[in-house]
Amino acid sequence: MKKPIAISDSANFYVSAERIFDPTLKNVPVIVLSNNDGCAVARSDEAKALGIKMGEPLHLIRDKVAAHGIRVFSSNYTLYGDISKRIVEVYEDFTPNVEIYSIDECFLDFTGFKDRTAHARALRSEVLKRIGVPVRVGIASSKTLAKCANDVAKKNPIFAGVLDMMDETLADLILPMVPVGDIWGVGRQTQKKLHGVGIYTAADLRGMPLRQARTVGTVVLERTVLELQGEPCLSFDEVEPQRKGMAVTRSAGTPMTDFDTLFQAITAHATRAAEKLRRHGLVAGTLTVFYHTNRHRQDRPQYSGSRSTRLMPMSSDTFDLVNAARRCAQAAWPKGKVGSFGFTKAGVLLDDLVRFEDRPRTLFDVARPKSAALMSALDRVNDRFGKKTMVLASERMKRPWQLRADHRSPRYTTRLSDLPVVR
Amino acid sequence: MPVHRVERPVVANGFQMRLVTMPVSAGFPSPAGDDLEDEIDPMAWVVRHPASTFWWRVEGDCLWDVGIRDGDIIAVDRAGKKRLGRAVLAVVEGAVTAKILRKRGDQYYLAPANSNEQFPDIELTEDSEIWGVIAGVVRRYDLA
Lengths: 423, 144
Fold this sequence. Notes:
In chain A, 37% of the residues lie in helices and 20% in strands. By secondary structure, chain A is an alpha+beta fold. In chain A, the strands form 3 sheets. Chain A has a 5-stranded mixed beta sheet. Chain B has 144 residues and is mainly beta. Helices cover 3% and strands 35% of the residues of chain B. The chains are: A alpha+beta (423), B mainly beta (144). The interface between A and B is medium-sized, with 21 and 24 residues.
């Protein structure tokens, strides 16, 4: 007996989230920009119809934006995260088993529900009613097939947002119409290779001999073929592997030219990384700092610097990480023509992460009994009174390097000062 | 029966449960044990459905008679039942408004609740939408 897996997601999720609180966005073209207001990462159907492409840089579409009155938003991840969390809460009323795949996609275990289509319709209308975001549901016996069903449901209004492909005759009908490049896990390169051997549709790929699949595109493609045959290879609730490394990097709103400004940004990133470590109960063994100029501005002097250092002993202490980051940043700082470089990106990478309990002890461990208490006090203050209530002085209070987000909507759901207003 | 020390907060339905800090003796039950109660949480009393409740700030006094004033913060529940006589948030011609849902004959309309000032009734058309039902109101007064 095959287990039904559903995937529910929202088309243009960021746009839908913006529309909850601003009814003037209904039926008009809307785009949401990536971090630092670079390019379009979400487009309403109306914006798609105007030919705005995914990932198109804002500066290339300014004319279109002005001519058609396209509404432009910076990404408001605080809002999207809150809405996403609320949607998951609704899903939890419909299945005991929810696996969050991304901010707008969840796999749902639909085992045991008799009329799956009716169940999915009910879920869809509840999310729309309670949160105000339209979602589509695809159901099948493997994750890849469910993704495919979800895609089809999204593109064809006849399905009214729900497609159950557990029925094999229905799958036989639909798969020949799905281009192989639309299948989850089939990238552009693989698609090219598949076309080369005469495989154009999802149905073709489903019928591909496994051995051939492995030679054309490694085990990953072989697994995709099995998944298309309804043989689940990606289990439900696949355990997240233990984190080996983490990164905190940001682009700067205005280029940073002096060391102090750059180091403010790096302090902030190292601070954030230390907080993340402590939240996961980890310590890091290696820290890397990097920064570079804007590579797309070849007319400007280019420089990129990066240094790594061991953390001895391994640590999650903000002061340790910031000190290590300072040494790295200084070591990588360009000699000579100082001030002529405009750094637009800086980041801190941590590697060699282990759980605090498993950290190796060194002979020369300095006993710092107060460090843990200080860090937990710091975290508690920032949890309670808001992020960045207490920061290291080297981060400063003014943050000229901070991201550009000129068109961000209010944090409607998470800030008292940003609540939507009804008159 | 073995007794285990509870070292982390107990979570039920997403809420942290308060633990009784008093040690439990196996002998005579403490006469005070029955009097321990949860901390008062008026927000939980107002917010019946956390996922579907959103907070809005009110500007204007068109719902004065039902106790909603300029500057108040209201909880709006999208899962609330849209019954006649209830205060609702509605989207009319692209604007959001807070009014009382009423019906005259076959026609639904949005009515103000303020006997001191004149606000017009608004007819609900096919394009209007009830955004949610007002679940409660929070107000604070100056202390200084």
